[in-house]
Model the fold of this input.
Amino acid sequence: MPIRRRRKKVKKCRLCEMKIDYVDYKDVKLLKEFLNEKGKIVPRRISGNCAKHQRMIKIAIKRARQMGLLPYLKQ
Done:
């Protein structure tokens, strides 16, 4: 009996669909969508972002943390 594997659902990059070409660090509402409940950055395989936008999100979250707009961790 062959083993059936479940096909992974291909996630689309939400930022590509919204046609966003730059992620601003001051847009805290957008950046909070890419943080988990502990305040960590959600990985690409879970969020479904493309590599380009994931890099932009990473840099924007780090800048927002330095400016004090986002917390480093939530306890």
Summary: The longest helix spans residues 51-67. The CA atoms of residues 35 and 41 lie 5 Å apart. DSSP finds four helices and no strands in the chain. The chain has a mean pLDDT of 91.
